[in-house]
Protein: 2-dehydropantoate 2-reductase
Amino acid sequence: MTNILVVGDGAIGLLLSHFLSNQHNVYVLTRKATNNTRFYSRKNSASQKINARFISLNQLAAQPKFDVILMTVKAFQVQSAFEQVKPYLTEHTNIVLSHNGMGNVEELKSELIPSQALYFLTTSMAGFKSNQYIVQHTGEGQSVIGGCNSLALKNISTMANTLKSIPKLHATSNIQQLRFEKLFVNIAINPLSALHNVKNGQLRDPQYNSMIINLLTEACNIAKAQGLNIPLINALTTAYNVMELTAQNYSSMQQDVINERPTEITAMCGYINEQGKVYNIKTPYNNQLLAKIQAKKSVV
Ligand code: PAF
Structure:
């Protein structure tokens, strides 16, 4: 059995904790009450208790050593959350990042020693918290894990095997490409669903077509400048497939905006805007959505 620390108890953190605790000792770092039971709920089946231990920061030192630390906090929270758990890393702790949008990998790489592997996990699994303690699993989706430093690239199959209780988990040797592909999905869905307050499936309506094509054209130009080959037609096909698969869901950004929480817009359209400056590529559509979401309350 592996000791896994999940950092963050948002919807994805709770879903992953539920699946991983079927096989491993799972601890979840939370800022909320630690003694309340958390539940996993799927469609009409009976809710199940999430079989993990919920702990606060001041309880970390009293836990056994962690083999894996899975960071499920949002992109803009990764650096500060990592600083909090860093004192509890062993020489061989594996770090797995999982968030929407780009960034963080280079920063974390420079904080780790060569015997600490760094991975990134992208997931299209969908869920939301119907209250602080219940996660509703609303959408099937693939999860893909890839290595971000030399040790992780070498050990990727072992890590994928350790995390195999996550449904539909695959390993890839090119996580940067996968992260970009997921970024395209998020750029097509998240800001528009948040601005128009609609479910993912409603974005298939013709009124959104040209905006989605323009956003993804700009993102494809950035990917190309970075040496990645992601044809626009593939990016559009994947985005529309995810809209279909998650048609009845609200995106994470829609949920953030409606609940007046900070959003991940800087790691999505903000990343395209920033890379546009680096490569001297114009990105007016991403800039426009970045500004509109930033104009909402509580945005980072
Ligand atoms: O951020 C989200 O909500 C999800 O990444 C996705 C895939 C867009 C589904 O809603």
Observations:
- The first strand starts at residue 3 and ends at 7.
